[in-house]
């Protein structure tokens, strides 16, 4: 008789693994779960990671617990599918990451000194990772930068890798000059080039902006999330102000909404002082 995972007393991780095994059972499991594969689950994995980041950014610790559980479920889902295909299982995944953490922290688990800055530890970490890539026949400087990363994050990682081998502007002023150049090229493309060429120029501009972020130690993803939040907050204030008169944005004018926006903006600045 199968163990009811809801009554399992073997520990919560074992309980979760048993639940996923039951869900994936071809005969008695959930039809939706049984039909999934790595490719169909990957988008959910990415989505859950973003929801974890969102809960952290909003400071919602109660939500964070649940979101971390959802993210853990994704790992368990992939582990179950890996076990079914004979590629890996949850135990091999945890063993692999445990071994990696020990290898990458010789100043904690080995005989190296802990008496060094976080910056030096980061450099040492990168050296270890470079050696690992060399062991995997990833000889190119850009090898191993995941294609599936968010585009801005991947741009920064590509630029960091290139910078390590000397392919980088030494001064941010040159990067800012490149922003001006790419902006001008985009403006020219708008009037003379095809849509595909416009998109190419726009991509070039975003790539340079990611480089600006790197030189200024700015996380471009976090900065854009903050800008999105600011826009949402201010636009909702426009809606609220108009609602006081029984109106909606479509009942207003751009000039009026822009005026409200500036009022909200100034109020926020005063509140921050």
Give a topology summary.
Layout: H1 12-23, H2 31-35, H3 38-57, H4 61-85, H5 90-104, H6 106-109, H7 118-135, H8 151-164, H9 172-192, H10 195-215, H11 220-243, H12 254-272
InterPro entries: MazG-like_dom, NTP-PPase_MazG-like_C, NTP-PPase_MazG-like_N, NTP_PyrPHydrolase_MazG
EC number: 3.6.1.8
Keywords: Coiled coil, Hydrolase
Plain-language structure description:
It is an enzyme of class 3 (hydrolase). Residues 172-199 form a coiled coil. Helices cover 73% and strands 0% of the residues. Helix 1 (12-23) crosses helix 4 (61-85). The chain is globular and about 60 Å long. It is mainly alpha-helical and 273 residues long. The protein has helices spanning 12-23, 31-35, 38-57, 61-85, 90-104, 106-109, 118-135, 151-164, 172-192, 195-215, 220-243, 254-272. The mean pLDDT is 89. It has three domains: 5-103, Orthogonal Bundle (Helix Hairpins); 140-218, Orthogonal Bundle (Helix Hairpins), CATH 1.10.287.1080; 222-272, no CATH class.
């Amino acid at each position: 008789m199968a163990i009811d995972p809801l009554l399992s007393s073997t520990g919560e991780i074992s309980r979760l693994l048993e639940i996923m095994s039951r869900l994936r059972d071809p005969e008695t499991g959930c039809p939706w779960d049984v039909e999934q594969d790595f490719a169909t689950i990957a988008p959910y994995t990415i989505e859950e990671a973003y929801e974890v980041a969102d809960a952290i950014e909003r400071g919602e610790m109660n939500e964070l617990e649940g979101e971390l559980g959802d993210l853990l479920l994704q790992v368990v889902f992939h582990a179950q599918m890996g076990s079914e295909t004979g590629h890996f299982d949850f135990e091999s995944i945890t063993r692999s990451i445990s071994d990696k953490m020990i290898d990458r922290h010789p100043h904690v688990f080995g005989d190296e000194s802990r008496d060094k800055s976080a910056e030096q530890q980061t450099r040492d970490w990168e050296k270890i990772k470079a050696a690992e890539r060399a062991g995997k026949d990833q000889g190119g400087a850009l090898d191993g930068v995941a294609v599936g990363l968010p585009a801005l994050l991947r741009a920064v990682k590509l630029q960091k890798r290139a910078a390590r081998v000397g392919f980088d502007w030494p001064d941010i002023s040159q990067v800012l000059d490149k922003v001006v150049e790419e902006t001008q090229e985009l403006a020219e493309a708008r009037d003379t080039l095809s849509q595909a060429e416009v998109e190419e120029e726009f991509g070039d501009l975003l790539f340079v902006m990611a480089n600006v972020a790197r030189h200024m130690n700015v996380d471009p993803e976090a900065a854009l999330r903050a800008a999105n939040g600011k826009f949402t907050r201010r636009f909702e204030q426009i809606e609220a102000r108009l609602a006081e008169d029984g109106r909606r944005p479509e009942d207003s004018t751009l000039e009026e909404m822009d005026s409200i926006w500036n009022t909200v903006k100034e109020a926020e600045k005063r509140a921050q002082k």
